[in-house]
Write a sequence for this structure.
């Protein structure tokens, strides 16, 4: 009897179901842990994982992009000061919804292009500090000692100074959980290893509590775990102004980290992901998470990698994961209440340690002192100040670094034209010689910050630079700032004072309009302004021929 091969769609569905179950089961302890890290009700992390993941999956361009809470987002929530609000839970949900609204608007405005303004040095410093902050943030849950300080570095020092108040039972549970996770990470079990470790750690905590009288905290000690799905809520308008800065910071994290997830995952059809569309998808995930009492979410490379490694073939795996989480919430709520806090702390410590990438740090160190300083400053700020401000400062540093790099990329070369039609590039002369014709070609963006670099590289004009002509060829330049126009105006004036002339060859019509409207064309004289064409080199040769004739008759 001949065996028939299952249809491709059935095989695909089977793999999606298997991958979805793995992701769904793993997301339960992971979601609780993120809520714990954020300093909010752990159930807010669980609901965020469910509704944020499903809501975003409806819109993502990357089929395997999983949107859940991340360590960086959780730390921003932790530092947002929500506990000071009249209703901290509703303030959290409002934060999620405002983050979602910002992301939707940003995605529709094609904000994916902004990712290039955040350099690797900034992200490396930020994510390295986030990893350390995650570890430091779990000292209380791991040791059982609650430090009175807010800053995590201060908590570390204070905890180290009070070993007599540590809970040996809590530490033992956390260490065992960490050991199990690390051991199972090296096996084929994958993401399920996290669930096994949490179950084992919680069982150990229950045994220590029952037999040895060890005081180990459980989720059920902190919150009542409902056996149903959360009801939808509306934002509290009084909290909108308060959560604007953390919402903006979380949105920036989502844009940058989400872009990394989008571009780092292969799509089934081989098409390039649409980063801006994925930003909109993250916004939708945050809106749904906030409405259903969850914390903010963003693209998660860890969860996305789990669903891919588990064999997912389509985005259906993500919806299966959501269904799996619903089953756990509806029928295993009592089990969730017995999850031990030190076990979740152990999971978060492993996540935090994994966020520190020494190879990436070394790579930035090898790129030069400027990038190293930017990374170090971002790292220190992220450790010392609230994360919502550290994110904004990091992005500001990234933009400053971008401007500095672009301004330093301007190069001025001299073109030597030959009678046979050739054109040779050489280093420019230091000083304009009397009776000479010098053709200069600047490369790079001639925006305002690059103007001083351009001015430094132009050949000097001395008293002896008489009866000379300098031709500045602006081919390939599509924008020119007013500061650069002032540089050219000063250079033209210096040449004129020496009895020499500046000629400009411009190909871009917008730049030509700027030069005319700014009065620079009037300064150098209309006959010294040449408009380029599609024939490369024609305009500069015409200017060169005119210049030689002028010098010959001087």
């Amino acid at each position: 009897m001949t065996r028939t091969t299952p249809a491709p769609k059935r095989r695909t569905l089977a793999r999606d179901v298997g991958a979805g179950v793995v992701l769904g089961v793993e997301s339960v302890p992971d979601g609780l842990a993120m809520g714990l890290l954020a300093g909010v009700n752990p159930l807010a992390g669980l609901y965020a994982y469910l509704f944020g993941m499903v809501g975003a999956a409806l819109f993502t361009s990357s089929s395997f992009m999983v949107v859940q809470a991340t360590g960086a987002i959780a730390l921003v929530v932790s530092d947002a000061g929500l506990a000071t609000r009249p209703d901290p839970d509703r303030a959290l949900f409002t934060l999620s919804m405002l983050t979602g609204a910002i992301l939707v608007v940003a995605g529709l405005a094609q904000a994916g292009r902004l990712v290039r303004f955040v350099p690797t040095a900034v992200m490396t410093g930020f994510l390295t500090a986030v990893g350390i902050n995650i570890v430091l943030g779990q000292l209380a849950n791991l040791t059982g000692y609650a430090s009175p300080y807010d800053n995590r570095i201060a908590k570390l020092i204070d905890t180290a100074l009070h070993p007599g108040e540590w809970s040996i039972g809590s530490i033992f549970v956390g260490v065992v959980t960490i050991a199990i996770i690390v051991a199972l990470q090296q096996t084929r079990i994958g993401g399920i290893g996290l669930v096994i470790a949490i179950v084992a750690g919680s069982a150990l905590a229950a045994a220590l509590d029952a037999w040895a009288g060890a005081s180990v905290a459980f989720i059920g000690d902190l919150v009542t775990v409902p056996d149903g799905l959360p009801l939808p809520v509306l934002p509290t308008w009084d909290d909108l102004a308060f959560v604007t800065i953390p919402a903006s910071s979380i949105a920036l994290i989502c844009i940058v980290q989400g872009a990394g997830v989008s571009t780092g995952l292969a799509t089934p059809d081989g098409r390039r992901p649409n980063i801006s569309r994925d930003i909109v998808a993250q916004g939708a995930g945050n809106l749904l998470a906030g409405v259903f009492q969850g914390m903010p979410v963003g693209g998660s490379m860890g969860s996305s990698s789990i669903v891919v490694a588990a064999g997912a073939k389509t985005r259906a795996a993500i919806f299966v994961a959501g269904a799996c989480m619903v089953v756990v919430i509806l029928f295993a709520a009592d089990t969730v209440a017995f999850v031990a806090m030190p076990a979740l702390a152990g999971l978060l410590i492993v996540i935090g340690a994994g966020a520190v990438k020494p190879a990436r740090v070394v790579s930035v160190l090898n790129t030069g002192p400027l990038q190293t300083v930017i990374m170090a400053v971002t790292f220190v700020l992220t450790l010392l100040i609230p994360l919502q401000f550290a994110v904004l400062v990091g992005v500001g540093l990234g933009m400053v670094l971008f401007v500095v790099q672009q301004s330093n990329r301007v190069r001025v070369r001299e073109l030597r034209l030959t009678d046979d039609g050739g054109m040779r590039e050489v280093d420019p002369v230091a000083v304009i010689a009397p009776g000479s014709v010098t053709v200069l070609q600047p490369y790079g963006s001639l925006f305002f910050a690059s103007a001083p670099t351009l001015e430094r590289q132009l050949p000097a004009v001395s008293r002896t630079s008489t009866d000379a002509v300098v031709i500045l060829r602006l081919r390939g330049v599509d924008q020119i700032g007013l500061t650069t126009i002032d540089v050219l105006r000063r250079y033209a004036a210096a040449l004129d004072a020496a009895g020499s002339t500046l000629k400009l060859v411009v190909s871009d019509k917008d730049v030509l309009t700027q030069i005319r409207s700014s009065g620079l064309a009037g300064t150098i004289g209309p006959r010294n302004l040449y408009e380029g064409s599609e024939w490369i080199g024609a305009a500069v040769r015409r200017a060169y021929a005119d210049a030689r004739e002028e010098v010959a008759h001087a």
